[in-house]
Every structure is written in C-alpha cells, then in structure tokens.
UniProtKB/TrEMBL annotation:
<dbReference type="GO" id="GO:0098542">
    <property type="term" value="P:defense response to other organism"/>
</dbReference>
<dbReference type="GO" id="GO:0005886">
    <property type="term" value="C:plasma membrane"/>
</dbReference>
<keyword id="KW-1133">Transmembrane helix</keyword>
<feature type="transmembrane region" description="Helical">
    <location>
        <begin position="12"/>
        <end position="35"/>
    </location>
</feature>
<dbReference type="GO" id="GO:0009506">
    <property type="term" value="C:plasmodesma"/>
</dbReference>
<protein>
    <recommendedName>
        <fullName>Late embryogenesis abundant protein LEA-2 subgroup domain-containing protein</fullName>
    </recommendedName>
</protein>
<keyword id="KW-0812">Transmembrane</keyword>
<dbReference type="InterPro" id="IPR044839">
    <property type="entry name" value="NDR1-like"/>
</dbReference>
<keyword id="KW-0472">Membrane</keyword>
Length: 220
C-alpha cells in the first residue's frame, strides 16, 4: 500500500513539473511578445503652405502639402493600418480656437517590422482664407499655427496571428514660418494623453489573459 502511493506520487509530480515548465515558458514568450508591443510613431516631417511664403505672389492659395512619417518600432511585429483620417485645423490666436480647414484619408496598408513609411500628400483647404491669414500676419513674427489630428485603427501581426484593432487618436501642433514652411527642422511627433491610457488598459488585459492561460494550463 505505501509503495503504490509512492508510485502514484512520482508521475504526478513529473507531470506537474513539465506542466509548470511548459506554461512558464509559454508565459515568458507571450509576455515578451505582448509587453514589447509598441504603438506606431507618427510625425509630420515637412509641412508647406505656399500662400504663407512671403516671397511668393501667385500661388495656389488653398494648397497645403505635408509629409507624414509612420514608423513601426517593433522588432517582431508587423502592423496593419486601417484607413487613416487626417484632419487639419487653423488656430485663431485671438480667441484661442481651432477651425477645420481640411481633411484627407490615407488608404490602409501593411508595414513590416522596423519599417518606416512616408506619405507625401497635398490637400485643398476650405473654410478659412489662408490669403487673409497672410495679410494679417505681422512681418517677422511667425505665429501661424495649424493642428493635424490623426484617427485610425491598427492591428499587430504576431507570428501568424493578428491582434484585435487598437484605436489611435492623436494630434500635433505645427507652426509655420513666413516662408510657409514648418518652423522647426525636426519632425513633429503626434501625441495624446489618451494614448497612454489605452496602452495601460492593453497591458492590464494582456496580463489578465496570461493569468487565465497560466492557471488553465496548471489545472490540466
Ligand atoms: C525670400 O527672399 C529672400 C530675399 O528676397 C531670400 O533671402 C529668401 O531665401 C527667400 N526665401 C524663399 C523661401 O525663397
Ligand atoms: C488649386 O489647386 C486645386 C487642386 O489642388 C485646383 O482644383 C484649383 O483650381 C487650383 N486653384 C488655382 C487658383 O489655381
Ligand atoms: C474665432 O475668431 C474667428 C475670426 O477672428 C472666427 O471666424 C471664429 O468663428 C471664432 N471662433 C470661435 C469659437 O469663436
Ligand atoms: C473633407 O474634405 C472635403 C473636401 O475636400 C469635404 O467635402 C468633406 O466634407 C470633408 N469631410 C469632413 C468629414 O469634414
Ligand atoms: C511688412 O514688410 C513689407 C515689406 O517687406 C512692408 O511693405 C510692410 O509695410 C510691412 N508691414 C508691417 C505691418 O510692418
Ligand atoms: C496645441 O496648441 C494649443 C493652443 O496653444 C494647446 O492648447 C495644445 O495643448 C497644444 N497641443 C499640443 C499637443 O501641444
């Protein structure tokens, strides 16, 4: 009778042990894959409003052209971008309000890991007359400001699977000098306080999913 007990204990412990090793290995792999997930980085690399160039006299007064940069910083994940909506606003300093002046939709696309993409586009503005803006602008001081809002959803490709969609709503302020160009040389990064919240909830959800998985395997 005691011998049989011993025999029973041995394989039980072994199964428990391999189960533990297997699940902790899997947990580590999933943790590595999910925790290292970083959102794509968006920035405005160039921004040109021809009518605001003090040298130019006869230009298309409604055109705004820009270069949007999208970077996937993940080492092991591709990113599926849904159609990406960009909305442009003009800033009225006198009453601190933004007025919509343009929009464009960039078609969906896939981006491999560690890849950078550029979308160079131009739009026709509406609503606010940029010609009037130029007339009002005092010489020398370049305080014309625009805002660009971005709205899209992305899915990450992890090995052969795709994650669910993650909404991204970000914005950036772009100041333009008296030559009609972006007043700083560096790219301007889109940001949002809300995006940090999204990141955190994703983290918590992934952690809970891992816990459930872990105990699921342990109890088998
Ligand atoms: C505008 O004209 C001035 C001189 O008239 C010149 O120095 C400057 O480079 C010009 N800027 C652009 C953007 O053409
Ligand atoms: C400005 O460009 C748009 C196309 O981007 C064109 O439809 C429009 O006629 C142009 N306006 C002028 C005044 O050239
Ligand atoms: C702010 O002022 C501009 C003109 O100065 C006007 O067109 C715009 O409607 C104003 N916006 C608000 C929210 O009052
Ligand atoms: C986007 O811009 C077009 C003109 O280019 C305009 O007709 C349309 O209403 C705009 N869409 C939104 C959502 O503002
Ligand atoms: C701005 O500069 C132009 C010449 O470049 C001059 O004719 C005009 O009077 C100036 N305007 C102001 C408000 O200083
Ligand atoms: C953009 O400018 C407005 C007005 O100055 C400011 O309230 C807002 O916080 C700025 N946004 C960012 C992302 O800097």
């Amino acid at each position: 009778m005691p011998r049989r007990n011993n025999e029973n204990e041995q394989p039980n412990c072994c199964r428990c042990c391999t189960g533990f090793l297997f699940s902790s290995g899997l947990t580590a792999l999933l943790l590595w894959l999910t925790l290292k997930s970083s959102s794509p980085k968006y920035s405005i690399e160039s921004f040109y409003v021809p009518v605001l160039n003090k040298n130019s006299t006869s230009v298309n007064s409604t055109t705004i052209s820009f270069d949007l940069r999208l970077k996937n910083e993940n080492r092991n994940k591709g990113i599926y971008y849904d159609a990406l909506d960009l909305t442009f606003f003009y800033y009225f300093p006198e009453n601190s309000s933004f007025s919509e002046i343009g929009n464009i939709t960039i078609p969906e696309f896939y981006q491999g890991h560690l890849k950078t993409a550029h979308r160079v586009e131009s739009i026709r503005s509406y609503g606010v007359s940029l010609k009037d803006v130029k007339m009002k602008a005092p010489n020398g001081s370049s305080t014309t400001m625009f805002r660009v809002d971005l709205d899209t959803e992305v899915r990450y490709k992890i090995m052969l699977s795709r994650t669910k969609r993650h909404r991204m709503r970000l914005g950036v302020n772009v100041t333009v000098n008296d030559e009609g160009a972006k007043s700083v040389d560096r790219g301007l990064r889109f940001s949002s306080a809300a995006s940090h919240f999204n990141g955190l909830t994703t983290l918590v959800r992934n952690f809970l999913a891992l816990l459930i998985l872990y105990f699921g395997i342990i109890s088998v």
